[in-house]
Structure formats: C-alpha cells, structure tokens
Amino acid sequence: MIDFKSVLKDIQHTVTQIEDKGEVANYIPELQHVDKNAFGIYLNVIGSEDFEIGQSQTKFSAQSITKVLSLALAVSKNADEVWKRVDVEPSGNPFNHISLLEVENGFPRNPFINSGAIVIADILVSSLKNPKQDFLEFVRLLANDNDIHYDTKVAQSEKNTGFKNYAIANLLKSFDNLNNDVDVVLDFYFHQCSLYMSCEQLTNAFFLFANHGRCLSNKLHISASQAKRINAIMLTCGFYDEAGEFAFEVGLPGKSGVGGGIVALLPNKFIISVWSPGLNPKGNSKIGMSALELFTTKTNLSIF
Amino acid sequence: MIDFKSVLKDIQHTVTQIEDKGEVANYIPELQHVDKNAFGIYLNVIGSEDFEIGQSQTKFSAQSITKVLSLALAVSKNADEVWKRVDVEPSGNPFNHISLLEVENGFPRNPFINSGAIVIADILVSSLKNPKQDFLEFVRLLANDNDIHYDTKVAQSEKNTGFKNYAIANLLKSFDNLNNDVDVVLDFYFHQCSLYMSCEQLTNAFFLFANHGRCLSNKLHISASQAKRINAIMLTCGFYDEAGEFAFEVGLPGKSGVGGGIVALLPNKFIISVWSPGLNPKGNSKIGMSALELFTTKTNLSIF
Amino acid sequence: MIDFKSVLKDIQHTVTQIEDKGEVANYIPELQHVDKNAFGIYLNVIGSEDFEIGQSQTKFSAQSITKVLSLALAVSKNADEVWKRVDVEPSGNPFNHISLLEVENGFPRNPFINSGAIVIADILVSSLKNPKQDFLEFVRLLANDNDIHYDTKVAQSEKNTGFKNYAIANLLKSFDNLNNDVDVVLDFYFHQCSLYMSCEQLTNAFFLFANHGRCLSNKLHISASQAKRINAIMLTCGFYDEAGEFAFEVGLPGKSGVGGGIVALLPNKFIISVWSPGLNPKGNSKIGMSALELFTTKTNLSIF
Amino acid sequence: MIDFKSVLKDIQHTVTQIEDKGEVANYIPELQHVDKNAFGIYLNVIGSEDFEIGQSQTKFSAQSITKVLSLALAVSKNADEVWKRVDVEPSGNPFNHISLLEVENGFPRNPFINSGAIVIADILVSSLKNPKQDFLEFVRLLANDNDIHYDTKVAQSEKNTGFKNYAIANLLKSFDNLNNDVDVVLDFYFHQCSLYMSCEQLTNAFFLFANHGRCLSNKLHISASQAKRINAIMLTCGFYDEAGEFAFEVGLPGKSGVGGGIVALLPNKFIISVWSPGLNPKGNSKIGMSALELFTTKTNLSIF
User: Fold this and answer.
1) What is the dihedral of CA A181, A185, A186, A192, to 10 degrees?
2) Residue ranges of the alpha helices (H) in C179-300?
3) What is d(CA A93, CA A99) in angstroms, rounded to the nearest whole number?
4) Cβ contact B242–D110 (<8 Å)
5) pLDDT for A76-87, tens place per residue?
6) Contacts of C211 (CB under 8 A, 6+ apart)
7) Which chains have at least 3 CB atom pairs separated by less than 8 Å from chain A?
8) Do B242 and D93 touch (CB under 8 A)?
C-alpha cells in the first residue's frame, strides 16, 4: 500500500525548495496578481480516500483546463459534429498555431489548442439554450459543488486584449468552421476559461474521465469509450508543445492551464490536481510539472 | 513614332477573340454582377495625347489598386513610420499570407498584401482628420476629377464577409502593429477598396508615379525618390503571386485589383489602365494581363 | 479470464472480410511483390501463454518498426547524447518533415521520424565496433532467435532510390547533427530498416518494453524508467501523422512500418504484433490498425 | 553629359570611409582569406567609354553571379525546358528555402535560389558535351577574354562542405526534377560558382543582357525577349531576400555573389560591376550595395 499522505508531504517539501518558480502569466492582466509561492495538491484515489496538501482549497483561474470540460459537454451533446470539425492529432509546431490553421484550411489539429477549443465553444453555443449558464451548471454537477463561478473580470480582461483569439475565430469563420457570431462565441469562450476553481473542485470535476464517464454522483455523462478517447487526447495534446515531454516524464493523461493548474489522472486509479502559478517557458506550471513527475516516480503509478 | 491608336485597336481585336475570359470575383457578392465581356483601355502618353478604347469611361471597383494611392498618401504624411511598420520584400508564398505574418511577428512583407495595406490604413486613420473624406479628396485631386465616389454597398458587403481581413487586423493588433480599433481601421480600409473608378480616372490618378511625384495639375505630393520607390514596389509586389510573371512578361511597374482593373506605367513615358473583370486563377485580370503583354511587345516600351 | 484464442479468431474472421485492404508500399520497389491478403498475429500475454493466428511465422520487412530497437540500443549505450540530439515531441505536420527539420535547425522532433532515426543511426555508427553486425546481434538477443537477417536486396533498393533520406542526412550534416559520413550512416540505416522478421520475432524482440527493460531471457538492457520513456514516445509518435488517431482509437504504445507490420504493447500485460501489407493513406497497415482496434475493444485492455 | 569618371571617384571616396565593411563569407573556407578593404568598379557605358576605379582588374570568386550566365546558356539551349522546370517568382521566405522546395513539390521558385540554379546545372549537364569545359568557353566568349578559369580549390572546398546543396539536390531528385546523378550535377555546379573573374571581366560578360542578347563581339546568344526576361528575374530575384530592398534603393536588374561582387545594368545604357568582399547580414556586399545606391542617385540612371 502506498502511503499517499507522506508522498504528498515529500513532494511539497521538495518543490517548495526549488528557487526558480517560473513566471506568472501576464498576458491576461488580471492573472498576474497571484502569489508565485502558492502551492496545493488535491488527490482522489478511486475506491479509497482523498488526500490534500497546501492551498488545495484556494481558487484560481482554471483557463485551458476547462477545455476538457467543454469538450466533454460537446461530446455528450453531439459527438459526431465534434469529430467532424476538429482533428485529434498533436499540433507539433509551437510557433505558428494560426499558420497551421491556415495551412490546414480551418480544421483545427485538436480540441485543446485555441482554435479547436473555439470550435467546441461554437458547438456549445449552438446546442445549449443558455450557453454560459448551462455550461456552469454542467461543471457544478460534475464537481458536485455549487460554489463554482465565472471570474467575469478575467473574462472581460481577455475580451479586451485577446486579439489573437479574435484572429483565430475570424479565420475559422473565413473557412466556414464557425456557425455563430465571432463575438458571441468568444464571449462564451472567455467566460468558460475564466472559471475560478480550487484543486479540490478540479479533481472532483475530472472524476468522470477516470471513471468510464460517470461523475462523482454516478451519473453517466459520456460513454466509457468517449472517456477513453478524451484521455488519449489529453495525453497527446494536453500540454501545448510539451505534450511529448509530459508523456515522457510523467506518463499520465492531463491538462494544464496558464493559471498554473494541472489536472492529471490514471483511469480507475486516481485523479490529481496541482496548482502553482509560476509557468515554465512553454506555458505549463513549472512547480506543478515537477510535482507530478515526483508523484509518478514515487508511486510508480503511470500508464506506461 | 508609335501609332498608339492602332496599337490599342489591334489589342482590342486580339483579346476580344480570347474565349476563356477568366472568372469574375465572387468572394465579394456585390462584385459578381459585372459583365464578363466588358473591356476598356485608357492610355496617357506623357507629353503627347491620351488614347482610349472600349469601356474606358465605365466605372468599376478599383479594389487593391487603391493600395498604391493610400500608400502614396501615407508616405506623404509620414514616410518614416510607413517603412518602420511595413517591409518592401515580395511575399513569395501564395498560400499562407497569414502564416507569414505570424512567422514574421506582425511585420507585413510589403504594403500591397492585405496585412500591409491594413497597416497603411491604420497610419492614415491616425494621421487624417476625417480619414474617409480626406482620402477621397486626395484621390479626386490626383485624378483632377470630383466625380469619384465610394461604393458603399461593396464596402458593406466586405464588412459582412471579410473575416480573413478581420483575422489579419486582429493578428496585427496582437503584435502591436495596429494602433486604432480593428473596426475603425477596417471600415476605412473597406471604403478605400470600394472606390468606384473608370480606366480614365485611374490613369489620371496614377500620373504622379510616372511624373516624379507631381500629379496632373503639377502639384508635388511625394518626392521623386519616393515615387521611384513606390514604382519599385509595384514591380516586385504589385501582382500577388504573379509579380515575377508580370515583371517577366510585361516588364512594367503596375497594380491589379480583383475588380479586374490593372494600372501600369513607364516612368516619364506613359500610364495605362486596362479593365476586364474576368480573373485568372491568381486573381489578376486575365484579359488585362494579355492586353498589357501585347502592349509592351508591340510598342517595345518596357523597363527592361 | 479473457479467451485470447477466440478473440484472435474473431478478429481474423472480421478483418479478412474487409474488401479494401489498402495499398502495398511501392516506393521501395522490392516491397511491392508481397501478397496483399497476407495476415498474421502473434500475441505474448505476460505471465501466461503465447497465442498466434494466420501467417504469424512469415517474415516481412520490418522497416520503421526497427527504429524502436535502434533507439533502445542507442539509449543503452549513451542516453544523454540521444536526448541532446533528438527531441521527444510529436511532429505534427504531415507534409513537410524536411521543412520542420530546417525550421528547427536540424534538431529532429522525435526519434521515429526519419530525421530522428538517422541521428540515432549516427550515434550507433559512432558507438558500435561493427555497427551492422552488432545491431543484428542485439536484435537476435532481444528476440532470443538467431534466425533474423538483413534483407540486403531491400537495403540496396533503398540506397538506389532513397533520395529524400539522403536529403535529410545532408541537411542534418549542414546543421552539425551528423558526425559520420552521410553514406556510412545511411548504409547502416537502410540495413537496419531492412530487417526481415516475423510477427513472432517482433513480439519477442519488443518484450523488454513491456517488461521494465528486461528481455525474454531476463537480461536488463535499459532501465525501467527508459522503457517507460520509450513507451511514451511510441504512443505519441509511433504512427506518423496518425499518432493521435491511434492513441484515440487503440490506446496503446506501438510502432508501425511500411512493410505492413505493427507492434503494440500494454506494459506488464502483453505484446502483440500484427501483419497485413496493405497500407492506408497515412502509411500504416490498414487491416493491422483495424485488428488492433478490435483487440482493445474486445479485451478492454488499453492504457486509458 | 554625366562625368562618370568623377562619379566613380566620389563613390570610392565615400565608401572607403565607411568603417563597417561587413563580414567576409566564411562558409566556404577558401573565401575567407580575402582582404576586406578591397574595392573596385568597372563600368561600361554603351556607345561611350569604359570607366574603372580601384581593383577593377583583381579577380575574385564570382559565385552566385554565375547563375545568370548559366541561365543564359541553358535558355539558349532549351528555353522551354528551363521554364517548365523552374518558376520565375521571388522566393520571399528568407529562412526556409528547402522548406519552400518541399512545400512546392520540387519546383524551385526561381533560377537564382540554389535549388533553381541546381536544376539549371542539371539541364546544362544534359545538353552540353563537356559541361565544365563548354560552360567555361561560353563565359570566355561572352567576356571576349580567355583568361578566365575555375578556382578548383574553391570548388573542392564547397564539395567538402556544401551539405545543404547536397540536401537540395537529393530533394530535387526525390521530386523527379533532377535527371543526372547528384554528384555529377553538383560537381558542375560547384565549378560554375568557383569562376574567378575581375570586375572588368564580369561587366564584359554581362554586356549581352543590356544589349538585346548580343555579346561584346556582336554574336546573338539569346533573343531580345529572353534578355528582357532574364533582366526581369534579376530585378525581382537577384538579391536573395533583399531583392525588394535593392529594387527599392537602387532600381536596377542585378545579381550579387557571396564573393562580394555585384553586377547591375540598365538596358541600352550601361553595365557596372562592383566588388568589395565584406557582406551584410543578408549576404550581399555591404559596400557594393552602397556604391550602387550612390551611383543611381548621382547619375539618376535607374529603371524607375
């Protein structure tokens, strides 16, 4: 039996000593006022207990992590349309995601790069009655927690400065891969990304991916096969241009966000969320990546 | 002495017999209702007479041809800023102008691809009091003709469908190479492109480039050296991805538009405008290109 | 308990009925004379029995599958140099692997695209006394089978027609990422790819990756951590531009070759090789992919 | 009347005072032992005298300047094949000429980038009896000077280090755009580039391009129309990624080489060669570019 409590303690001990904690994201002005030394983990071991350490209850901006949740909702609504409009291949080129979109005629490489996530947002805007409210309710249901909200200041901040996302959405529209108005889709998308959640809430919300599509309260949202597929995409595409490195070093499906959060999981075994706001040059939480490497090394729990 | 009158007659005779007249542009819905068989030429031989044939007085949508006029106005206002924010190199890659813009960090290759022309529009919006009105007055002054107007239907049509230009403008903004609001700059840009002019008016408006910067009414707008530079850019970048082909076959500085117009010139010698709305696959007037090839072959007037 | 025998039978029954069996590779002339209807599987269930069906003993050209074996040998000799000279990220762009190599200054994206495999070949040429003989002995040792040989006709055939590989090797050399002569490295590389092996031999040779680095005869060749890493690269990069699709549909680390073979594995559980020479448009065995999809669906054995 | 003698003197006076003379090319080891302060001009004013200043008789490595001469010979032998196998468009992208070649399926953008020049070399190898000797005789005939030779040391030096050219030639071969052996074509190409010529000899050799295809001794080598076309390509593609800049600043068809030479011309008017071995970051002679800018500014002789 693994003593998860002391594993988490060891990890905390080790990573808090790392001096270079990376750089807090500043491209969204609202995000940069976070304490760089913040650190928390929340671990759900399926069929056993939950374990937590540090600021596991503190909320932060979930950002790109929410792309997995919006994908799950879109797949549950209309899986066929999702896979017709978005590919599932890693994106490869770090420096030119817009270029790739142009070269590939508006067919995004996968649902986790911005262009893909914006297409998913478009699908949700089309298929939900009250898109923002309905998505929020979906996340609350997954996490079994009603204390989850949008951070409208962050959403507004991105609206004012997210020119690259406007460029992407307009390019998608020029290729007929966006059905709704650019402004409507991006309003939804910026709200989605602004979800303000704690490690505990994220771990709970991701439970279904490790549990064949059934969430904490045992409701089936997506089929086992769909859960497996989303896990595969998390592994190959979940960490921007560091996806290979993460698979290589950690070996778990997962997703990171520029707010400094990372969620990872081993199907049937556990879901873990880590938070530390400083990012490495590739845009993933620096301390979070180290913590997860240590976790799989110490526990020997990885998919490989 | 060249008998220009019969040269133009011969050209008209030859090109009207070409069966495949190309395809009228349909990406701007308003443009597609033009008669494919329309054809006109207006030639100004400096220090001699003017010659015309066919529908030389019929107005059509000048579109990209106006990029040379907006460049001239921007250069007259603030040449330093122009060359700091736009390069003067041919763009090369046909298929990925947005990609190129991304790879080169928002610094457009030249002022005649859309990204470059949008930066020029931004400079004009900043430096003119009433941008749309002032630009219109400038063109009227150049052409010595007050009967020049915007085609607001065409401008509106592009506003509703020009998603690629919105993508470009937002991408420029994300690279800090657009100072004004995207919507304001594009409103100006779409109006600029919608200028409704005849071959005669275009020939007159381009007189200054063949005349060391002095327009028909002898006013100096740009220096002789600036006129020479703009001619160089027309030669190397004036025909989309067919610039090399045009230099190779025709050998004149010039600029085409998707409305089917082409203006070309030989400094100190002549300015010629041709119009035929059918385009070749590269987006240049098919019959217009043939007419200009014939013109330089028959008259032996080319820069090479 | 899963009845693997009938699972394999069912798979054989299903896939032999698929009419479109893909196209046999013809870019290496020697490869195209293979029977398109050939089909075989060899499965090693760790700690249990072996199962086989069809032409599981027939030899075919292993081609790119050998890249995993050469990587394992290079890692066992000099892991530091391997990861200094080759990255571990998916390659993304299907159409321009040479372009990518140029853009990224001669640093191949991963060891399974040709540029990466040629760097690995260069490392082996530097670190082995008799490179071709030593590599052959290594594979025989892994497979516990001395009846494994190079197909020198195929090697020669690639030597005569493999201009793209010569282009890649010279480009690597121009970026100082090839220490030996182009001809020497490619002679080794073409021999490596020409290995002529059966499904049974491939399954046996890949045993170490599912067994923490220990081969069939229990010799430790690479550390458990290195085996885990190579598995991660197989999952993210093992199927050309279909890596994401394979992870998505099958969910196993694996590697394909243009000879029509595929090897896949689940750590601690099993190693499976499939062979059917017809390829899909992405260059992977068409029937082989279907067989593996059926296998993970029927057995529910996947990493996700 | 322009006093060319004092124009050249003024230029020499001005440019010798420029402190930063650029960097002598070192990628071919043999080229780097040249005196950075060397400077010479040789001017042929058609129908008038010749003028020269500085080291106008000193020989240097002509390098890429020879691409215009090999193109002229290939066009005179088989113009149709030339334009079927090479395009005439500027290359645009500075950083990825090999990528461009891959993206465009082995069809080089123009005959002056290396890939295009290697295709021209292939055409000459096919159409000449003794390629190296015949090409040398052609250049001697053009320049009316038998004291022109290959620098075999430089040719050998490139053979040993020109891996990028080997990559290009093999890539061309993989796209079926190279008929002869890579080694044979590159042996010819490296010799061609190694031509050791003075400013005077280059000016004389380029006479035909300013003289409707007739060389100094009045022999017609290419038609007037072909001469015009080659001039157009020189203007749009003669200066690597600085072609636009050169057209913009100088306004003459021309061609530079990494040996520090530049030849430029105004049809019917003059041919001028400048030599100064230090290069600017784009690979063109730094002082040579300045000298030509001064020349067109002072004489007002340009095509625009």
Assistant:
1) 170
2) 182-193, 199-205, 207-210, 224-237, 243-249, 286-299
3) 9
4) no
5) 999 999 999 999
6) C46, C227, C268
7) B, C
8) no
State whether A174 and B182 contact (CB < 8 Å): no
- Chain C residues whose CB is inside 8 A of the D174 CB are 163-164, 167
Predicted confidence (pLDDT) per residue in C118-177, tens digit: 999 999 999 999 999 999 999 999 999 999 999 999 999 999 999 999 999 999 999 999
DSSP 3-state assignment of D144? coil
The backbone torsions φ and ψ at residue B26, rounded to the nearest 5 degrees and listed phi first, read -125, 5
Of D100, D103, D304, Cβ closest to residue B232: D304
Q: Which residues of chain D does C96 touch, with a Cβ-Cβ cutoff of 8 Å?
A: 99, 102-103
CA terminus-to-terminus distance, chain B: 20
D263's tokens: 């030849």
| pLDDT above 90: residue C91 | no
> Is A150 among the catalytic positions?
no
Question: What does R_g of chain A's alpha carbons equal in angstroms?
Answer: 18
What Cα–Cα distance (Å) separates residue D249 from each residue in B33, C10, D14, D290? 42, 74, 17, 9
Instruction: Name the closest residue on chain C to residue D161, using Cα atoms.
Output: C174
Average pLDDT over residues B293-304: 91
Q: Please list, in sequence order, all residues whose beta carbon lies within 8 angstroms of the beta carbon of residue A135, skipping any fewer than 6 positions away.
A: A69, A70, A73, A124, A128, A188, A191, A192
Q: In this complex, which of D99, D166, D170 lies closest to C96 when CB atoms are compared?
A: D99
pLDDT band with cut points at 50, 70 and 90 for residue C78: very high
Single pTM value for the model: 0.91
List the beta bridge partners of residue A275: A40, A261
Q: Which residues of A touch C110 (CB under 8 A)?
A: 244
Place of tokens 């390509």: D233
Least confident among B34-48, B177-191, C244-258, D41-55 = C244-258
The values of phi and psi at residue A252, to 5°, are: -140, 145
Average pLDDT of chain D is: 93
Residue type (1 letter), A282: K
pLDDT of A304 reads 84
Which two three-digit tokens encode residue C73?
A: 């040998």
Residue type at position C286: K
CB of A242 closer than 8 Å to CB of A226: no
Rounded CA-CA distance D125/C82 in Å is: 41
Contacts with B286 (C-beta within 8 Å, 6 or more apart), sequence order: B18, B20, B21, B22, B276, B278, B279, B280
B304–D232 CB contact, under 8 Å: yes
pLDDT digits (tens, 9 = 90+) for A196-206: 999 999 999 99
**Distance of CA C18 to CAs B277, C4, C287, Å?**
52, 22, 8
User: What does R_g of chain D's alpha carbons equal in angstroms?
Assistant: 18
Q: Which residue has 């009347």 as its token pair? A: D1
Dihedral class, residue D212 (left if φ above 0, else alpha if ψ from -120 to 50, else beta): left
Chain B residues whose CB is inside 8 A of the D227 CB are: 304
What's at A281, amino acid-wise? Answer: P
Contact assignment for D244 to B237 by CB distance below 8 Å = yes
Would you say B293 is a known binding-site residue? no
Phi and psi, residue B200, nearest 5°: -60, -45
The angle at the Cα of A152, spanning A149 to A153, to the nearest 5 degrees, equals 130
C60, C277 contact by CB (below 8 A): yes
Domains of chain C: 4-299 (3.40.710.10)
Give the residue among A291, A299, A296 at the shortest CA–CA distance from A53. Answer: A291
DSSP 8-state code for residue A43? E
DSSP three-state, residue A261? strand
In this predicted structure, the answer to whether residue A99 has a pLDDT above a threshold of 80 is no
Return all residues near B51 (Cβ < 8 A) that are at least 6 apart. Answer: B4, B5, B8, B41, B42, B43, B45
Q: Where are the alpha helices (DSSP H) in D197-254?
A: 199-205, 207-210, 224-237, 243-249
